[in-house]
Amino acid sequence: MIIIVMGVSGSGKTTIGKMLAESLHWDFHDADSFHSPDNIEKMRRGIPLDDNDRIPWLQSLQIAITNWLQEKRNVVLACSALKASYRQFLVLDSDVKLVYLQGTFELIQTRLQKRENHFMNIDLLTSQFASLEEPDNVILVDISQSPQVIVEVIRKVIGI
User: What does the record give as the reaction this protein catalyses (predicted)?
Assistant: First the structure.
């Protein structure tokens, strides 16, 4: 099974993803590591990525997910997956589950202001919320809860 933990930057994808993977003894991957150096530099400079920037990134993620499914590996993937078209690219099978970490702009902005050593420029949060197409038929988790509670909720809803 592949669990994609999605949401805007600062929603807790990496933190929750790592905790969930550790609790399940699964592999963890961060979709940020699939970005090209050019994309990372754009984000560092506060330049929003467009669909042309994201297509090669999404293709790399799709290949990884296909391989994990073929290898029957259990993986938690932290990935923004902001648009429905991006999620369609990634949810290749019924064994791919989406978990949406939902929070308010104000809460996430506060989190980003406290973050250190991350390439994501806080100014991009507005563009991320503008690009976000909230998903239907996913596991929706309110991020105002503690990370431990969020992981417990995800495990309970998925049944693992």
Answer: D-gluconate + ATP = 6-phospho-D-gluconate + ADP + H(+)
Q: Tell which phi-psi region holds residue 10, choosing left (phi > 0), alpha (psi between -120 and 50) or beta.
A: left
148 burial (CB, 10 Å; 0-12 / 13-18 / 19+) is exposed
pLDDT tens for 30-47 read: 998 999 999 988 877 878
Residue type, 130: A
The single residue listed with the structure tokens 């400079």 is: 45
Element holding 23 (H helix, E strand): helix 13-24
**How many residues in the chain?**
160
Could you give the CA distance from residue 114 to residue 133 in angstroms, rounded to a whole number? 26
Residues 6+ away with beta carbon under 8 Å from 126:
none
Q: Which residues contact 13 (CB under 8 A, 6 or more apart)?
A: 5, 6, 7, 30, 78, 79, 80, 101
Is the distance from CB of 16 to CB of 30 less than 8 angstroms? no
- Tens of pLDDT, residue by residue over 58-107, are 999 999 999 999 999 999 999 999 999 999 999 999 999 999 999 999 89
User: Tokens for 9?
Assistant: 């930057």
**Amino acid making up residue 120:** M
Q: Which residues pair with 100 in a beta bridge?
A: 6, 140
